[in-house]
Amino acid sequence: MIRRLYRLWPHPGLLVQLWSLTAALAVLQGLLLGLLVPILRALLQPEPDFAAATPWLIIGAIGLVAYAVLSVIATPVGFAAAMKLAVQLRHHLMRHVTTLPLGWFTADKKGQFSRTVTSVAGTLSQLTATIGGPAITCTLVPATIIGVTFVVDWRLALLLLVTLPIALVALGRSWRTVAAVSDDMEIAANEVASRAIEFGQAQPVLRAAGHATTGSVRMRDALDDHRHRYRRGLHRMLFPDLSYSGVVMAGYVAVLVFGVQFLLSGTLSIPDTIALLVLAVRFLEPLGAMVDHASGLGAMDYLSERVESVLRTPSLPHSPNPVRRLEDASIEFADVTFSYGGPDAGEKPALSEVSFRCPPGTTTALVGPSGSGKTTVTRLIARFFDIDSGNVRVGTVDVRELDHPVLLENIAIVFQDVYLFDTTIEENLRIARPDATWEELEDAARHARLDEVIERLPGGWQTRVGEAGAQLSGGERQRVSIARAFLKRAPIVLIDEAASALDPENESAISQAIAALSDDPGRTVIVIAHRPTTLATADQVIALDGGRIAEIGTPAELRDAEGTFARLYHQYEHARSWHITA
Ligand SMILES: Nc1ncnc2c1ncn2[C@@H]1O[C@H](COP(=O)(O)OP(=O)(O)OP(=O)(O)O)[C@@H](O)[C@H]1O
């Protein structure tokens, strides 16, 4: 456990400080108790020898003062440590997450990460500071007492020595059970949380179906399961707890029986027997107290595993001598094969042997049926994932050789599902370039046709867009994203055009904004196109099907070829006319 905690805190100075203090206190406690032996030997005689007892009493008094001072220091150090450890652990997690492939950030992983950074890191740090100390005390005090007992009577010392590992094994079992039970409970709690969210979101449907008060069956099942697992967990923890307490009690009875036996047989003096029985109580007491900490230790074990599982995720490999400059804004795929599960997953690749080139300053439209690999192409250009074989080159350099921040600086991405922060429009745009001037902001907004939206908003540029941009429509959010791309002035722009039907105003604004991005000869644009207007203006069209390139050519060439592109083009045209006349 200590090794694991060491791994979690890369600069464990604070842990060392905290634990050294606790260890010093524990050893001091054991030694102070050991002073009972010479003191009782000197005083428990027919003629008490005060002169012989005095030096030990003085040493004991000094030891007690030192113990009191260290205890006073340890309390605030413990409190401050819990907070500092949480901050350090959170920074460590955040630093690691920034090195992970962007493809790691699925909805699941985002949820897991947010829980790990908030509650898991906080509770683990708290437990490390509060339970780690007593756990050291509970181990070191008995260990010191064994040492002292060896000096007085090796037979009783051996008895204590045998009790210690048996008690620790029983304790280990107890806390492993706690960890397993916590795991089980977490699964049930997550299920309840997911069902509760679903229950909230499904309210309109439930009400329409007349089940608003009875709730959804899935929610009730999740709550039943949670209750069931909780009860089962309590039963599972009962036996290990009892077996640990049993070992501790048996150890105490054995010391008592053998101590009295040695006294009666004359091999142990009265003062030594009294001192050793007191020591035996203090030996077993902290061991007994460990059971109170077992659930905390079990939880620490479980929480450390949760943090480690994030930290174990391999970072995006980086080249030892990364290239920091792009030659130009070209994009090239050479025989690229890629599977989301990796080359050994045995799944059908999302892209197979894909090769194409986008010369600098051109616009390429990606088309193809759903699942054909269009989004995957854009993700690989931005190196969200590493490919299985082939090369993805940006600016003539393989993306694996490029410095990753430099690659991302050169690319602007307009997602279909745009994420906006719950802050003002201005701040949402400034994410693309924090030091942009007002002229640059206004320019970008005008090009993206966002200025019309801003004019309509009550607070103009300072209007807050709400959680995840909920105050804006899908088309308006995409205009913010396009404005960010203009503001960033990246030479490469990747666009996932909104596939859903937009109102005519947003539709024409977005088409014009994309056309403006494409018109700039300094930009290379790859657009996942869903509208005939976007397709018509592209320099090159790549039609994908089942992860392979089905056709490649200019829009005019492919329209005449009567292949995949022509079929999709006619479908888009048809859908559009249907949408307009409907
Ligand atoms: N994160 C992922 N993990 C595993 N498989 C994925 C992931 N994303 C996409 N896929 C799979 O990869 C294949 C290509 O998906 P991709 O999203 O690139 O297609 P697309 O042409 O963009 O589809 P759409 O038009 O529906 O967005 C599909 O079979 C899809 O199920």
N-to-C span: 66 Å
How many domain units?
3
Strand content: 5-15%
Radius of gyration: 35 Å
In the CATH hierarchy, what is the class of the largest domain? Mainly Alpha
Supply the CATH superfamily name of the largest domain. Answer: ABC transporter type 1, transmembrane domain
- Continuous helix count: 20
Low-confidence stretches: none
Total DSSP E strands: 10
Order of helices and strands: HHHHHHHHHHEEEHEEHEHHHHEHEHEEHH
Shape: elongated
CATH topology of the largest domain: ABC transporter transmembrane region fold
Question: What are the distinct ligands in this entry?
Answer: adenosine-5'-triphosphate
Second CATH tier, the architecture of the largest domain = Up-down Bundle
Main pleated sheet? 6 strands, mixed
What is the average of the pLDDT values? Answer: 82
Q: How are strands sequenced across the largest beta sheet?
A: 6-7-8-3-9-10
Structural class: alpha/beta
Q: What is the helix fraction of residues, given as a range?
A: 55-70%
Describe it:
The chain is of the alpha/beta class. The protein folds into 3 domains: 2-311, Up-down Bundle (ABC transporter transmembrane region fold); 323-410 and 490-582, Rossmann fold (3-Layer(aba) Sandwich); 418-489, P-loop containing nucleotide triphosphate hydrolases (Rossmann fold, 3-Layer(aba) Sandwich). The chain has 20 helices and 10 strands. The chain has helices at 2-8, 13-34, 36-43, 50-97, 107-130, 132-152, 154-201, 203-208, 217-264, 270-311, 374-381, 404-409, 425-430, 438-447, 451-456, 474-488, 504-519, 532-537, 555-561, 564-581; strands spanning 331-338, 351-358, 363-367, 389-394, 397-398, 411-414, 492-496, 524-528, 540-545, 548-553. The strands form 2 sheets. A 6-stranded mixed beta sheet has the order 6-7-8-3-9-10, sandwiched between helices. Helix 17 (504-519) links the parallel strand 7 and strand 8 (524-528). The longest helix is centred in the N-terminal third of the chain and has 48 residues, at 50-97. The model has no long low-confidence stretch (mean pLDDT 82). Bound molecules: adenosine-5'-triphosphate. Adenosine-5'-triphosphate (ATP) binds at residues 340, 350, 368, 370-376.
